[in-house]
Write a structure and sequence with these properties.
By secondary structure, the chain is an all-beta fold. It is built from no helices and 18 strands. It has one domain: Porin. It has a 14-stranded antiparallel beta barrel with strand order 1-4-5-7-8-9-10-12-13-14-15-16-17-18.
Amino acid sequence: MSVFSMPFNDIDTRTRIQFTFLPEFSVMREHGDFRSTFWTYRFRFYMAGPITQWLVLDAGNTERFDQSFDVYYEQDELALHVKAQGAVEEVYAGAGLRFNDIDLALRGSYLFGTAQELWNYSVGDYVIADTFMYQYRGKIFTVGARYRFLSCAYEFLGDYTVENIDTLIELPSRLSVGLYHQFLGGDFELIAERSFWQETYRSPTRFKLAYSKDRIGIAYLYNPWYIEGVSEHGLDVSYALPIYRLGTITFELCSALRSKNSLREVKISPRLVFTFDELFTSR
């Protein structure tokens, strides 16, 4: 699962198909120096359908880790410029079981991806350029339970291999707890998560507060990283436009501020979500 997501679905007797386009633009600043990146290839797919009254199957994809960055370092005669592009993607399939007010979920994910890093060094009059390619393969599993307004999910047994250098990286287990409540005529959501890394990294606790009413939604996200000293604050707004007898088109604007010491990064991601809830329903 990506951050602040749960393995549950809320479909009834209809099949749901969802497409999400999420380009991203980011600007980094440190001591007056600026770097910017813009990625347009991001795409997310999701599909879920009821098999029986108590069994729902779903499948989809999401980006697990973003490996894209553009950094510059200079000290004395040394100048280093590193530019990378790539990601670790996740393709998942799951099943949901419903028993009155109780929902159970099970999901398995396959992780894969590639990344390319271009390193440019210069020391005095000498210039060196190196290119590194990486390939990733891995897995992770998730279980969850939900009872009325309270939900809980646990992610475990996650790891992936960097095939080019034959290195196995173990992913942290993660516990997520969600609280849902109707408030002032709208829907209130609180999600708290904790990732359990080994001694190499810190184990951060993150949370999300969201409120939606009618077609409008707003969310605040606090997402400290597993790297010491890196924090992230996010603000998302959305507007859902219903399409008669078809589904909805949701416009989202997601922003985040990441910081560590004097380094600042502002990320902006406008998203377009197409949700079709009645594609296979008889008309």
